[in-house]
Design goal:
Length: 650
């Protein structure tokens, strides 16, 4: 996710590899995407189709490396290529399983895309034993031989409590502990605000302000309040003023920038900020005075934001409420309504406003995908004992609408000022992705009623709402895959999925650096207007780039841990049968997702009647007598579990 200079045969500093033949051909650049079988693909920097690279043409390049290459053939797909030079090493260290021999050892990488073991001289092994998970650094990349490295840390034996998750944490270079100097700065923030901190701020402490979060949440970076007014509503969204405590270019700030985001694993959180801040002075805890950046929005009965303000504030949350309890109150739970009698009228008005905002957002074409997150329960030994889906209550949707409104309001204000800022962007699907969707829709007899050259969000929203119950789930999946990845950028490009002209992430500065970055810009604007914001031009670029990079790493680490624990949960269920839905179709088999979100592969060789043909457009396998298509229901039996991979049989 990328390091090193050009390499040279048998020399870690490097020139070009030996045996390079096509030196007169035009060079292309890209990143190596390895395959467990030894070959690789070149993901091109110019956006062209990936190129196949045989193992013999890698010349020492490994997964993640940035390389120069030349095209050697056009006979296979987009063509084949050969590596000419490694310009930057993508893997300088890795996690794997140590295997010792009499005079040396090897580390077998956990990442299957790194197909070569790392040679470890015995004096560089730290005394590691066969079967232990270790962190190793790569010291040399001799061409034609295995990379050479040394052990930096022994994590523990495979199967020991916590070793599996810790291995994932180490493989992504995530840091659980904060440097002592950062912790020292964090402690200076204290745990109480004083009246001097409140000077010049708008005082909301007399308002009925509440937080609504999950049952197990520990940091609260948003609070809400609502007034019903003639002709509409006044919505207050209060966000923790983290930038008050994390000042520019301090040790705290540099560490937060480095981390980029908090990482949420099933048994722990690796926070962006020390707990002194994230769970303490920055968290909008019940009954505590807290500093905020607050967005006040006047919203009419049509759901339009007609006016408002962004200001520094101070609040005192009346109640720490949960999604579950709020949903129960709105459904009429008498006990909870009595317990929270002071907020029931406001909650009922919040539900009405949220419905209004949802209606308006859908009307403008916002795309609604059916998504849910996995909830993995561990026992005292760290083993997975249950896998379910997190419940989504109407109160989740309510808070989501309020946060969306705040994010759009802030983004529009600063986009119109044309000052440095960090926007959250989501672009129109590429023509390649759109064509794949159109091919599938055509094959299943569904018409895409939109401009295929210039699609708008409403085209996709209408597709999902009109495809009928039978095809709804499968078209939801295929349409989701056609979407581009959202990212942080220093220029406003709108958010296609939300059908929003302006969008940013403003509401989670405790756990996301881009939010913290724009808080810093907003606070300077509040104090001094637009004139002093030009200094943030490069900062906005850097914060956007870093935010996008660290978000990808966090998502990958979270997914890897989920996959490991889901596989662990299924490991004692070999032979048991389940009903599932085909969630992916490939030329080597079908992926089946169970109701609890566990996913496994049914290999093509285990499907009945053999001789299957893969239809890429239909996302389907056919044998003449049997067919398997994305979205089909399928009953499967658990056949095997290997690491994080689950194999099913029909």
């Amino acid at each position: 996710m990328s390091k090193n200079k050009k390499y040279e045969k048998n020399n870690r500093h490097g020139k070009s590899g030996g045996g390079m033949k096509k030196k007169a051909a035009a060079k292309i650049t890209g990143t190596i995407e390895g395959n467990p079988k030894g070959f690789a693909f070149l993901v091109r920097d110019d956006g062209g189709e990936d190129l196949f690279i045989p193992a013999s043409a890698l010349h020492g390049a490994m997964h993640g490396d940035s390389v120069e290459a030349v095209i050697t053939s056009h006979n296979r797909g987009a063509g084949e290529a050969e590596v000419v030079a490694v310009t930057q090493r993508g893997v300088s260290g890795l996690v794997g399983t140590y295997e010792s021999s009499r005079s040396c050892g090897f580390v077998r990488p956990d990442n299957p895309r790194i197909s070569r073991d790392i040679y470890i001289p015995v004096e560089a092994s730290m005394g590691a034993r066969t079967g232990q998970k270790v962190v190793c650094a790569i010291d040399d990349y001799p061409e034609g031989r295995n990379p050479v490295g040394h052990v930096e840390e022994i994590i523990g034996a495979v199967g020991e409590k916590g070793v599996d998750i810790l291995s994932v944490i180490r493989s992504y270079g995530l840091k659980e502990e904060f440097p002592a100097a950062v912790m020292k700065e964090a402690r200076l923030s204290g745990d109480k605000i004083n009246e001097k901190d409140c000077e010049g701020r708008r005082d909301f402490r007399g308002d009925l302000v509440i937080t609504i979060d999950g049952d197990d949440s520990k940091d609260f970076d948003d609070a809400v309040s609502l007034e019903k007014r003639k002709g509409g509503y006044r919505l207050y969204v209060h966000i923790a003023d983290v930038a008050h405590y994390v000042r520019e270019n301090t040790k705290l700030d540099r560490e937060a920038f480095k981390r980029g985001t908090s990482v949420y694993l099933c048994d722990r959180v690796i926070p962006m900020l020390p707990e002194q801040l994230s769970n303490g002075i920055c968290s909008l805890n019940e009954g505590e005075d807290r500093l905020t950046l607050s967005v006040v929005m006047d919203i009419d009965n049509e759901g339009n934001v007609t006016g408002g303000d962004i200001c520094e504030g101070v609040i005192r949350s009346r109640h720490r409420m949960t999604y579950k309890n709020v949903a129960a109150i709105l459904d009429g739970d008498a006990r909870l309504k009595a317990e929270y009698a002071d907020v029931v009228p406001m909650l009922e008005n919040m539900e009405k406003l949220a419905d209004l905002l949802t209606y308006k957002r859908k009307k403008r074409g916002s795309i609604e995908f059916d998504l849910s997150e996995s909830r993995i329960v561990l026992d005292e030994n760290g083993r997975a004992i249950d896998v379910t889906r997190y419940p989504i209550y109407k109160s989740n949707k309510m808070i989501e609408e309020f946060m969306l409104a705040a994010n759009e309001t802030v983004a529009e204000r600063f986009a119109r000022m044309k000052v440095p800022f960090v926007f959250r962007t989501h672009e129109v699907p590429s023509q390649e992705k759109l064509q794949a969707l159109l091919n599938f829709l055509s094959a299943v007899g569904v018409t895409f009623r939109g401009d295929v050259l210039k699609p708008v969000p409403a085209d996709f929203a209408n597709l999902l709402s009109s495809c009928g119950e039978k095809l709804s789930a499968v078209i939801n999946r295929v349409t989701l895959r056609s979407m581009m990845k959202a990212a942080y950028e220093p220029e406003n490009k709108g958010h296609f999925g939300l059908a929003a002209k302006y969008y940013c992430h403003f509401t989670s500065p405790i756990r996301r650096y881009p939010d913290l970055a724009i808080h810093r810009i907003i606070k300077d604007w509040i104090k001094g207007g637009e004139s002093g914001l030009k200094k943030y031009a490069q900062f906005a670029v850097d914060a956007s780039k870093r935010g996008s990079e660290r978000e990808k790493i966090a998502e990958s680490a979270e997914r890897d841990v989920d996959d490991l624990k889901k596989a662990e949960y299924m490991s004692d269920k070999i032979g048991e049968e389940y009903d599932g839905v085909i969630s992916g179709v490939t030329e080597w088999g079908v992926f089946v997702e169970l109701e609890n979100s566990v996913e496994g592969l049914v290999r093509i060789g285990t499907l009945p009647d053999g001789n299957y043909v893969y239809n890429r457009d239909l996302l389907r396998l056919d044998s003449g007598t049997h067919s398997y298509c994305l979205g089909d229901k399928m009953r499967v039996r658990v056949a095997a579990v290997d690491g994080s991979k689950i194999t099913f049989r029909p």
